[in-house]
């Protein structure tokens, strides 16, 4: 059977979108949509999701709505994008971890080892819990979550030694995002958390400022961290969520039909981004091994050690930051999702 290439598949999708047809007159509305990932759709989940969103919205609105994309951090880091989307200088953004800086309750999604697999995470985020969280964050921030995308499960890498259980992390300086929950997690696992902004990470790894870092497989491969890190541990400690958000005032200025179009397009876009991320993660582990990384997959017993060390400490800390009811709601939603599968 002849296989269809990614390029051919994407080309066909673009032709279908173009077949809706619209003339070249100026759009009635332009939505500026920014993210920090590369634009290349085959390797970037945000790149894929944003391009699909643009294609659907422009095609189905017959050109009345233009979506202008600003990928690769062209308009700043994720904290900048959130601030600009809140004040309306930017219509839309697709962001991950820093969203909890403006809506602290979103940090529940980063509780370590709370999601056993992606299917459970999708069920929870696309279900009642995800809707309730989105409504809460809208009220708190003025940002409407149109859909949840996927950054992927995060894993540890380091340059010193293989990590198969928490004791192996003792003394290792691990770069984390500038998000307090991740500091608490690494501390609970015995490592030395070192918050460093994303643009400075390659230099920090190269110079030995830190021994390791944690990110999804696709990010580790795309940024060639295998050139600076020898060891990869597939512990899948946090399921990274992307938030496709729009300024609420801009959203309310659209007709109900156009609002529905944006929600529909975002739903499709999030699933495309998830698929691209899953594909790249699945083949990424083998690619990283080919590049010389030593890959460690903890056993179920060892994963329990990680969970028992990190989860209670993070939950205790998080309970002092937000209403603990959100933690209970998430745990219930996860249990119900697991039971339904």
Automatic annotation (TrEMBL):
<dbReference type="GO" id="GO:0030288">
    <property type="term" value="C:outer membrane-bounded periplasmic space"/>
</dbReference>
<dbReference type="InterPro" id="IPR038404">
    <property type="entry name" value="TRAP_DctP_sf"/>
</dbReference>
<comment type="similarity">
    <text>Belongs to the bacterial solute-binding protein 7 family.</text>
</comment>
<protein>
    <submittedName>
        <fullName>C4-dicarboxylate ABC transporter substrate-binding protein</fullName>
    </submittedName>
</protein>
<feature type="signal peptide">
    <location>
        <begin position="1"/>
        <end position="26"/>
    </location>
</feature>
<dbReference type="Pfam" id="PF03480">
    <property type="entry name" value="DctP"/>
</dbReference>
<keyword id="KW-0732">Signal</keyword>
<dbReference type="InterPro" id="IPR004682">
    <property type="entry name" value="TRAP_DctP"/>
</dbReference>
<dbReference type="InterPro" id="IPR018389">
    <property type="entry name" value="DctP_fam"/>
</dbReference>
<dbReference type="GO" id="GO:0055085">
    <property type="term" value="P:transmembrane transport"/>
</dbReference>
<keyword id="KW-0813">Transport</keyword>
């Amino acid at each position: 059977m002849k296989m269809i290439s990614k390029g051919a598949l994407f080309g066909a999708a673009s032709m279908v979108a173009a077949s809706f047809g619209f003339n070249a007159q100026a759009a009635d509305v332009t939505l500026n949509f920014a993210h920090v990932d590369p634009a290349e759709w085959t390797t970037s989940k945000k790149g894929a999701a944003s391009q699909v969103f643009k294609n659907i919205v422009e095609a189905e609105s017959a050109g009345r709505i233009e979506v202008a994309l600003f990928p690769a951090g062209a308009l700043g880091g994720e904290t900048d994008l959130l601030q600009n989307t809140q004040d309306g200088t930017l219509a839309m953004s697709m962001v991950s971890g820093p969203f909890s800086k403006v809506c602290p309750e979103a940090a529940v999604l980063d509780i370590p080892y709370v999601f056993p697999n992606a299917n459970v995470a999708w069920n929870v985020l696309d279900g009642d819990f995800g809707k309730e969280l989105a409504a809460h964050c809208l009220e708190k921030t003025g940002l409407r979550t149109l859909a949840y995308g996927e950054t992927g499960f995060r894993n540890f890498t380091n340059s010193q030694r293989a990590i198969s259980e928490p004791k192996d992390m003792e003394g290792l300086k691990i770069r984390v995002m500038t998000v307090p929950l991740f500091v608490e997690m690494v501390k609970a696992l015995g490592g030395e958390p070192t918050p460093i902004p994303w643009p400075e990470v390659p230099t920090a790894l190269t110079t030995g400022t830190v021994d390791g870092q944690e990110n999804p497989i696709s990010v580790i491969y795309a940024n060639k961290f295998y050139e600076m890190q020898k060891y990869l541990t597939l512990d899948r400690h946090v399921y990274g969520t992307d938030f496709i958000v729009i300024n609420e005032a801009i959203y309310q200025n659209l007709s109900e039909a156009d609002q529905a179009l944006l929600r529909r397009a975002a739903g499709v876009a999030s699933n495309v981004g998830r698929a691209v991320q899953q594909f790249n993660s699945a083949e990424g582990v083998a690619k990283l091994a080919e590049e010389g990384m030593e890959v460690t997959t903890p056993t179920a017993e060892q994963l329990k050690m990680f969970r028992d060390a990190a989860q209670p400490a993070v939950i205790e800390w998080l309970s002092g930051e937000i209403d603990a009811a959100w933690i209970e709601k998430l745990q219930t939603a996860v249990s119900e999702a697991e039971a339904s599968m």
